[in-house]
Amino acid sequence: MTGALAMMPSTSSPYPLLAPPTCSSRLPPLRCFVGLRWSAPRIQVREYPDAVAGIAKGAGGRGGRFRAPASSISQPCSRTIIITNEHVQNADFPPNYSKRVKKPFPIPVLELRRRAKERAKKAEGKPKRSLPPPKNGMLIKRLIPVAYKVYNARILLINNLKRLMKVIPVKGCKHCSEIHVGSVGHPFRTCKGMSSDKRRGQHDWGGTLVEAVFVPVEAYHLEDRLGKRIPHDQRFAVPRIPALVELCIQAGVNLPEYPTKRRRKPIIKIGKNEFVDANEDDLPDPEPYKLEHPILEELNDNEIIAPASPEEIVALAEETLEAWEVVRDGALKLMKGYAVRVCGYCPEVHIGASGHKARNCGAFKHQQRNGQHGWQAAVLDDLIPPRYVWHLPESGEELQRDLKSFYGQAPAIVEICVQAGAKVPEKYKATMRLDIGIPTSLREAEMVV
């Protein structure tokens, strides 16, 4: 059936009308079908005031439309039956982009150009408005408490992870960056490190540190975020600190060991890319900021004490998982106010409107770019990599290589907290595949449709 077929009410029609489909052969035929959906529909029926229209799928992917009087199929009904799946049971794992391909832009370039044209069109003929913070050198006041909260949550997260890793074993491959949460490493042959061809991709598991779970992405510390870009010859003179710490400093966190310039008046633009600082001599001496919060300190390895009781382990896991969510959510809020850049070819991150000029990119075909980075807008996973690992089933059985497609994944921090007794957050259930039954043998797995 390739075209639309109109069926008028006639007793001599050579095409008899079929009864509407039912949800089960054991149930009586349904009387009203409006927006009924199922996994692999063959016929979709919708009811109208005077007729019922449907779409039938035939062989070869071809389909057609039909329309018939409502009296011949169903009785008028005022109810609407909608069968949908609001909670996704399973979701695909995050994509692993090839190192030979540039990262995709968070917003397509064509969309960025369209928005720029719209802004230029709206600003045409209007007086120029003053720059908003943080472009004018001032801080966004509403984000200062968020910055302190994120900074303290990061310290709390690191300290709690060191304690949890005393009771929850975490393995790391000796030749690549793969990690696994469990007493025994997974059997999947995914190693791409040194001499992996001799081991046929088999991992060589050993101990690991907290830095493998919570990856410390570093960035240059800027004493003046509106100053000149860091040149290549000064790449070793500028200190490098965790990128999340640098973002918190630029958002208002004051750390004595990392001084930064704080302006109390907006800058004065004298050109497209030139400005001068406003005169602040008429202002009184600066007072301690009222919204400053106490700063937590990171514990040394010799000060870490493992939790003693199962109840303490569960409470520590819940606190760690909450700190992880605070860090992620707070960092996302800060990134909406303060620009964060990432190289499209390598993991280099820069906190600022424009990336630095250090030519230290060693990614694919960096010789053609003379080592320069391809800066673009960063996403949250560039600043805080989640490090997905395989999720162990609740039964506690070891993972089998032949049943790889039945297992789920979760961020390493989430997996550690879940194995310690914390409740699984809703946002991670889809990738962990908790509702999938795992076969007990390979023969049973081959029977799965």
Automatic annotation (TrEMBL):
Residue ranges occupied by any APO domain in the UniProt entry: 172-257, 342-426
Molecular functions (GO terms): RNA binding
Protein name: APO domain-containing protein
Record organism: Oryza glumipatula
Source organism phylogeny: Eukaryota, Viridiplantae, Streptophyta, Embryophyta, Tracheophyta
